[in-house]
Amino acid sequence: MRKIEIAHRMHQEAGISEQEAASQLAWILELFKSTLRRGERVSVPKFGVFTVKSKTPRPGRNPRTGEAIMIKARRVVIFHASPQFKAAVSAVQACHAEVLPPKA
C-alpha cells in the first residue's frame, strides 16, 4: 500500500477530503521522522515501536569484486512489532496464504 492509497482510505473511512487526508498523513509522517531524527522513540500502542540505532563503522566486502571496504557509520530505523500486531498479521496470513499472488 502506497502513501496515496493510505490517504484515500483515510478519506473514505474518516469522511474528510482527500486533500485533508493527504495533509494529515504527511504531518504524521513528518512528526515520526523529526522525532526519530532527534533519537527519540515512537511508540504506537498495539502496533509497535520505532527506534533509531547508531551503527559504528565496520569492515565489509564488495560482493561483486570481493574488495575489502570500510562501511561508514550510520543510523538506522528499527521497528519492533507489538505482540498484538504480530498476532493479527499472523492470523490473516494463515487464512489467505493461497490467495496472494507470487512476487515477480
What coarse outline follows from CA principal-axis ratios? extended
CATH fold assignment of the largest domain: HU Protein, Chain A
**Secondary-structure element order, N to C:** HHEEEEEH
Strand order of the largest sheet: 1-2-5
Binned strand content? 25-35%
The CATH superfamily of the largest domain appears as IHF-like DNA-binding proteins
CATH architecture of the largest domain: Irregular
Structural class from helices and strands? alpha+beta
Low-confidence segments, ≥5 residues, pLDDT <50? none
Helix content range: 40-55%
CATH class of the largest domain: Few Secondary Structures
Count of DSSP H/I helices: 3
Number of DSSP strands?
Answer: 5
Question: Which features would summarize this protein structure in a list?
Answer:
alpha+beta; single chain; 3 helices; two-stranded antiparallel sheet; HU Protein, Chain A; 104 residues; three-stranded antiparallel sheet
Structure description:
The protein has helices at residues 3-14, 18-37, 83-96; strands at 42-44, 48-55, 58-61, 68-71, 74-81. By secondary structure, the protein is of the alpha+beta class. The protein folds into 2 domains: 1-38; 41-98, Irregular (HU Protein, Chain A), CATH 4.10.520. The strands form 2 sheets. It has a 3-stranded antiparallel beta sheet with strand order 1-2-5. Strands 3-4 form a two-stranded antiparallel sheet. The longest helix has 20 residues, at 18-37. It is extended. The chain starts with a helix and ends in an 8-residue tail after the last helix.
